[in-house]
Amino acid sequence: xxxxxxxDRSTAAQRVRLLIEEKGLEWNSVIVDTAxxxxxxxxxxxxxxxxxxxxxxxxNNGVGIAESNVILEYLDDAFSETSFRPAPPEDRAKMxxxxxxxxxxxxxxxxxxxxxxxxxxIYLEQNQEKIGKYHxxxxxxxxxxxxxxxxxxxxxxxxxxxxxxxFRGLFEDMNDRLMDNDWLAxxxxxxxxxxxxxxxxxxxxxxxxxxxxxxxxxNEWYRRIAARPAYQKAVIDWxxxxxxxxxxxxxxxxxxxxxxxxx
Length: 263
Ligand SMILES: N[C@@H](CCC(=O)N[C@@H](CS)C(=O)NCC(=O)O)C(=O)O
Hints:
Layout: E1 2-6, H1 11-23, E2 27-31, H2 46-49, E3 57-60, E4 63-66, H3 68-78, H4 89-125, H5 128-136, H6 141-153, H7 160-179, H8 191-205, H9 216-226, H10 229-236, H11 243-262
Parallel strand pairs: 1-2
Antiparallel strand pairs: 1-3, 3-4
Helix pairs in contact: 1-3, 1-8, 1-10, 4-6, 4-7, 4-8, 4-11, 7-9
The chain binds glutathione.
């Protein structure tokens, strides 16, 4: 049976769970949650599954596969009864271009925003020796360096304005596309919608939703996906153990974030 290594609030894991639930697959859950700065949560030999030591990873037929966008295409190939990729090659290319934006900067921007607004407080509350060990084991050195800047500088981080600009540009482009189309790529709900919807919830969790309240088509698309039973199971039911911290620190940061968003 399919095994997924994941944790509740990981956006990369949420998109994989969403596809799994859309397809109605049976799966085993293995929680690997290092995200509050606890590297001891990583199972032995986890780096054999994912050299970066991150979630999600799926294991199927004895093979481990990392990288959420790769996993989405893998699952769509391996469990192909219902496909979430448009048939016309041009629409499929458009789907991949939307998904590529995640790996080209959106996911890193999401982490920057999260660390600057909330996670830095979670890390700063912890035993600093433990956080030192967490960063010492981080294999993606850009991620480690960005984290260290964002933890120490928070809302003053030089990485934050660019991260917010990345999201503003993404949301504007999605909103433009959705003005005349129900879905991001082609004529049906696809991996592009599944891959990107998780960031609406993530940004909303920082109390930032007023910043795109005027983007009607984007908000309507989000509501439409959020109403799907698979989204309820894959995202809402798994919850977020850091939710109250996001709300508290997000509300406190709103004024500064709004200024940068509009700059
Ligand atoms: N490009 C990767 C990114 C994976 C990633 O950033 N995973 C995060 C959760 S969203 C993680 O494992 N975090 C663990 C930590 O922060 O310690 C993917 O799409 O799978």
